Amino acid sequence: MELNELPPKDGAQRAYCDICGGPLDLIFERFHVTVSGIEIDIDGLPMLECTGCSFRTLPDRSRFSIMQAHEITTKKDATIFKSKRKKIEDVFDYTDVPFQYDPDDYYYYPGLARPWNLGFLTPIFFNRTVLTKYDADPRYLIRYASPTYGNITYMDDFAFPFGINRHGHLIMWLGDIAKLPKSEQYYLMSENRPSDHSLGSEFYDGQIECKFTDPPQEDILFKERSNFLAAAFKRWGEKIAHLDTEVLDLARRLHRPVHDTPAQRHSTSDTLNKIHLESLNNAKLGEVVATQGIVCTGTGSLKRLQALLSSVGDATQVNKLMSPFYTLYDFRVAYSHLGSTQGAAATMRKVTDRLGLMEEADLQTIYNQLLLKMTASYTELIKILENKQPSDTSDGGA
Ligand SMILES: [Zn+2]
């Protein structure tokens, strides 16, 4: 390697792979290369590695360290530079709550170190169980922009963004955390974990790169579900759905099916059902129905939800808007027992009929249509909850 290959070429190093565009992880490895005649051997040098294709590159700061090592060695008339790198142990002075973090993340992961607010964008990692409290406590609301990027809000007092990386760990910025009340910080600290140096996430893309690619329909649907639950919370002061780890994991892994087999239909309908229907908190819905003094003909969560929504909006309209959820329910029932094909066929006729599709529609078509209809229903139901004029849903609801 030649010395002139080291300075960053097209501006600062970014956090994406040159080959596949995937996210890079920060790793600490031995760098042992002859650079313009000098053998440079540094143990534990921060490098960036693609999680998908193993492509490696160097953070800007590591490049400068190597250039510096070259210069020192040349001045000494030596030909070998050997060292073991010590980790940076800075403590950033934002809070006296002793969070565990790795300052190397801040200095070496692209895009975080700034000339101002030193250390603000240091990532702090948490076990995902940290979300459990926020989900259970009615004073907090988790709003999702996607299954891996969201905001936690506390009453109308404060809000802080978080991301979930590919290891399922939560990431937040030190500077954001330091603004929270002390009790909140101590709670967070109880779930603090060591950095895994994996920053690649929609959180990073949105917060650092201001990169907002067109989200896939799965993410749009999940976001609308989150908005719908938030509107229901505002209306009735109760969380009408659970958001446990399983739901979040399923939502993260949900993708458009590639094959159309009975097993795939079972799996797709089951996943959607778990995210959107089984996650409804039927006991809580029952309580709200009772406290609102509403007459409800059934005890199932969909019936209760429909009764509640009808009490604040036009019942016919609500009925139409609930249709995609009943359709999902039937779709799931049709493939819950893989054996009984006759009953399944009749139920599927109902499903395709309500989705406005041909009876022989393939799984991909059913999936697309179902996602679009559920998204549209959430959007309209939010308007009903917020007492806004719903748009014409002759096409979007039933
Ligand atoms: Zn790659």
Unreliable segments of 5+ consecutive residues: 394-398
Q: Compute the separation of the termini in Å.
A: 65 Å
Mean pLDDT: 90
**How many β strands by DSSP?**
10
- N-to-C SSE string, H for helix and E for strand: EEEHEHEHEEEEHHEHHHHHHHHH
Identify every distinct bound molecule in the structure, by name, code or SMILES: zinc ion
Shape: elongated
Q: Count of DSSP helices?
A: 14
Strand content: 15-25%
Structural class: alpha+beta
When the domains are counted, the total is 3
Strand count, sense and barrel status of the largest sheet are:
6 strands, antiparallel
Strand line-up of the largest beta sheet: 6-7-8-9-5-10
Helix content: 40-55%
Return Rg in Å: 26 Å
Descriptive account of the structure:
- This protein is an alpha+beta fold and 398 residues long.
- It folds into three domains: 3-84, Ubiquitin-like (UB roll) (Roll); 103-207; 217-385, no CATH class.
- Helix content is 43%, strand content 16%.
- The protein contains 14 helices and ten strands.
- It has helices at 60-75, 103-108, 130-136, 174-178, 182-189, 202-207, 217-236, 245-253, 262-278, 282-291, 301-312, 315-334, 341-354, 363-385; strands at 24-35, 38-50, 56-57, 80-84, 123-126, 140-146, 149-154, 158-164, 170-173, 192-193.
- A six-stranded antiparallel sheet has the order 6-7-8-9-5-10.
- β7 and β8 form a beta hairpin.
- α9 crosses α12 (315-334).
- The N and C termini lie far apart (65 Å).
- Residues 17, 19-20, 22, 50, 52-53, 55 line the site of zinc ion.
